[in-house]
Design brief:
heterodimer, A: about 375 residues, alpha+beta, 5-stranded antiparallel sheet, B: mainly beta
Chain lengths: ~375, ~110
C-alpha cells in the first residue's frame, strides 16, 4: 500500500461533473485526485478475504443478538423487535454495506460496519473507475461495484412485492440524492420499475393502513437512504407495523443491529480469534488504549481516542445519549500525516470493491477526502 | 481483473450536477412564522435552528408540493404540504385528502452521510 502524489487532470472538475458528481467540492475539497493509493494484488486479495469473513461473522452476530434478546444493548425499542425478526426470518432483500477497515503493518482490522446507510458508493463505483480510465486504463482496480449492483438487483427482482421499487432519501442533500439515484440507475438497468420519492413526501393513509406516494399509489417496496433509528423515532415509525402491504424496506430492519456500534463487543465476544476484529467492550476500564464510540453516531462525531488512559484525539458532536462502546485503539496508518481508511463494499453478500477516504487526523470525520486507488 | 469491464449510466447525468447550486442564506433568525399547508389545515409556528446549513436548506424546505389522486385517468389535486411545517399543519381534511398525512418521516437530520 503506497500513497503516490500526481498532478490532477486539467479539467477534472468538468470530467467528474459530467458523471453527475456534483459534490466533489463543498467549502472544502472532497474528491482529491492529486494523490492515489497503490496496492498490490496480494493486498487486495487480503482485503477481499477479510471482507467476506467479516460479513459471515456479522450474520452470525445478528442471529446471536436475536437468540439472546440483546436489543436493549442497542437501544432498540421493544416494539420494533417483531419487525426486525420478521425481516430476518423472511430474508427480506438487502443490497449492500461498507466495512471501514484499517490496513497497517500487514494487518487488517475492522473499525465498524456501515450496514444500513453507507454512502460514497458513487465515488467508489463510478468516479474512481472513470478516473482510472483517464489515468491509466490498463491498470486494475478493486471495483466491481457497478456490475454487482446490477446483477443483484436482477436477482432481487423475484423477491420484491408487486409494483414499483421506490427510492427515497432526504431532499436537501445532493450527496444523498446522488447515492440514491445511482442505486436506482443500477436497478433500472436490471429491469426494475422504479420511482423516486423524497422521504418527507411519503404519505400514510390512516384508513387503509398503507404508505402512499405523491399520487396516492401504495408503496410496497422501498429502498431508503435514511437510517432505521431515525425512521423508528419519527411519527410514522410505528405505522410500519400496521402497514397492510407489509412493504419491503431496503436495507431491511435487521440491518439496524449491524449498523449499531454495539455490534462490536458482540462480535468480539463471539469471535475472539478472528484476526480482523479488535477487542471491544461495553464496559470502560478493560482497555488502556482504546476508542470510545457512541453506539449511534455518524461521520466520526463524538469519538475519543485514548492512549495509556490519556486522550490523544477527540471530536465533538451531538451523539452519545444511547450509550458508548470501547474498542481497542488501532490507529490508522500514517502516510506523511495523511491517514487513510478503507471502505470495503459488500454487495449482494459478496466483497465488491473499495473506496479510500483520507483525513489529516486519526479520526475520519466529515472533512475527510475521497481519493482513488489502483492495483499496481 | 478486479474492476468492472464496462460501465453505463442511464439515469444520473449532468442534471444531478446542476442541482449543486449554492443557495442564498436569507433566513432571519428572529423571524416568527406561522404557516399551514393549505386552507384546510391549522396554522402552527415554524421552528428553525438558524446557523450554517439550515438556512440554505430553506429553499428546499419551503417548496409547497401539490399532491393528489388519479381518478378515471384524471389527476385531481388534493392539497399541498410541506416538510417545513409541523405535521398538524399538513393534515387538514377535504374530500380529496381523505385520511392521508405526509411529513411523518424525514425530520431527523439533514444528511445521512456516513
Amino acid at each position: 500500500m503506497q500513497r503516490i502524489k500526481i498532478t490532477p487532470r486539467n479539467n477534472w472538475q468538468t470530467e467528474v461533473e459530467k458523471l453527475g458528481f456534483g459534490f466533489h467540492t463543498t467549502n472544502i475539497p472532497y474528491w482529491d485526485e492529486s494523490v492515489y493509493y497503490q496496492f498490490n494484488m496480494p493486498e487486495i486479495l487480503a482485503i477481499e478475504k477479510a471482507t467476506a469473513e467479516l460479513y459471515d461473522c456479522c450474520l452470525g452476530a445478528v442471529q446471536h443478538v436475536m437468540d439472546q434478546g440483546l436489543y436493549a444493548k442497542f437501544n432498540i425499542p421493544a416494539w420494533a423487535i417483531p419487525m426486525i425478526e420478521r425481516s430476518w426470518t423472511e430474508d427480506h432483500p438487502a443490497i449492500y454495506g461498507r466495512f471501514d477497515l484499517c490496513y497497517k503493518d500487514g494487518q487488517i482490522k475492522m473499525l465498524e460496519f456501515n450496514a444500513d446507510t453507507p454512502t460514497s458508493l458513487y465515488e467508489a463505483g463510478i468516479v474512481q473507475w472513470f478516473w482510472l480510465k483517464d489515468f491509466d486504463k490498463d491498470k486494475d482496480q478493486f471495483n466491481s461495484v457497478h456490475e454487482k449492483l446490477i446483477e443483484y438487483w436482477k436477482y432481487l427482482k423475484n423477491y420484491l412485492n408487486a409494483g414499483p421499487l421506490y427510492f427515497t432519501c432526504l431532499k436537501e442533500t445532493l450527496e444523498d440524492l446522488t447515492n440514491t439515484e445511482y442505486l436506482r440507475d443500477c436497478a433500472i438497468q436490471a429491469g426494475l420499475e422504479t420511482k423516486l420519492i423524497f422521504i418527507d413526501d411519503i404519505g400514510w393513509d390512516s384508513e387503509n393502513r398503507e404508505f402512499l406516494d405523491l399520487e396516492n399509489q401504495p408503496i410496497k417496496n422501498i429502498f431508503k437512504l435514511y437510517p432505521w433509528e431515525w425512521l423508528l423515532s419519527e411519527s410514522f415509525g410505528k405505522n410500519m407495523l400496521e402497514d397492510k402491504n407489509k412493504a419491503l424496506w431496503i436495507e431491511p430492519a435487521w440491518k439496524m443491529i449491524l449498523s449499531n456500534k454495539a455490534i462490536l463487543p458482540i462480535l468480539w465476544e463471539l469471535y475472539p480469534n478472528c484476526p480482523y476484529l479488535l477487542p471491544a467492550y461495553f464496559e470502560e476500564g478493560k482497555l488502556s488504549n482504546y476508542v470510545k464510540k457512541p453506539i449511534l453516531s455518524r461521520e466520526g462525531a463524538n469519538i475519543d481516542l485514548v492512549m495509556k488512559n490519556m486522550g490523544i484525539a477527540k471530536t465533538e458532536g451531538q451523539y452519545g445519549a444511547e450509550g458508548f462502546i470501547y474498542q481497542e485503539l488501532f490507529t490508522l496508518p500514517n502516510f506523511s500525516d495523511y491517514y487513510p481508511v478503507i471502505g470495503s463494499w459488500v454487495i449482494g453478500q459478496e466483497p465488491a470493491g473499495m473506496g479510500i477516504r483520507e483525513a489529516e487526523s486519526l479520526i475520519t470525520d466529515n472533512k475527510s477526502r475521497f481519493v482513488p486507488h489502483l492495483i499496481g | 481483473m478486479k474492476k468492472s469491464s464496462y460501465i453505463q449510466l442511464v439515469l444520473i447525468t449532468a442534471t444531478l450536477a446542476s442541482c449543486n447550486q449554492s443557495k442564498k442564506n436569507d433566513w432571519d433568525d428572529n423571524a416568527k412564522v406561522h404557516i399551514r399547508s393549505d386552507s384546510t389545515a391549522p396554522y402552527t409556528r415554524v421552528h428553525h435552528h438558524g446557523g450554517m446549513g439550515v438556512g440554505t436548506a430553506l429553499l428546499w424546505y419551503y417548496a409547497f408540493r401539490p399532491y393528489g389522486n388519479y381518478n378515471n385517468g384524471t389527476y385531481q389535486r388534493a392539497g399541498y404540504y410541506s416538510s417545513a411545517i409541523h405535521p398538524n399543519s399538513n393534515v387538514g381534511t377535504n374530500g380529496f385528502k381523505g385520511a392521508v398525512t405526509r411529513g411523518g418521516f424525514g425530520r431527523s437530520g439533514f444528511s445521512v452521510s456516513s
